[in-house]
Known about the structure:
With 244 residues, the protein is mainly beta. It is 10% helix and 34% strand.
Amino acid sequence: xxxxxxxxxxxxxxxxxxxxxxxxxxxxxxxxxxxxxxxxxxxxxxxxxxxxxxxxxxxxxxxxxxxxxxxxxxxxxxxxxxxxxxxxxxxxxxxxxxxxxxxxxxxxxxxxxxxxxxxxxxxxxxxxxxxxxxxxxxxxxxxxxxxxxxxxxxxxxxxxxxxxxxxxxxxxxxxxxxxxxxxxxxxxxxxxxxxxxxxxxxxxxxxxxxxxxxxxxxxxxxxxxxxxxxxxxxxxxxxxxxxx
Length: 244
């Protein structure tokens, strides 16, 4: 595992040296590393909290910051993205989370993404009671692969409504969801928030988060592979990696 991470890290450096920036831009990065200011953004707008259930926990490594988000609490993300994908809403984007959960949430619903800024209606990306990733509302199904407790995962969701919606875990495709339609439930309203770890019907049991990232378009599978598993650096000496 360490050798694989080192190889990916070296690939990241090569990308940066070559200046290989493609169509998508990283427009949000939240690392939860600043004590007393976990919501501060490395890129983009600071997160806005809803609720009081946020506890500092040990991250992927001993020096890594992370937060456990309790049921009923969540973060609001002001994305600043324009309409895309041919509709009135944001239809093309990529989201990434480094997450884990304890035995207390094992076999219960946890919600990653709620696109409705008012938390009205069902969430869009979940771990379900079978510990699978997906969403009937947002992706039409769930993965065959399952997660387990006390394990960090890097989850990447790529959305191009009307074309493709997919979920990758640690660089591997777990779910090739249905395409949906333009301005579907997985689109973002412009000039507004989307929510992470929120659900309207209490399907949001405690989850731990170490990193969240947002791109303004769909990133390619080669870069998803390079991003790899939870803990692969997104920054080198304070510089945001040009993963696009």
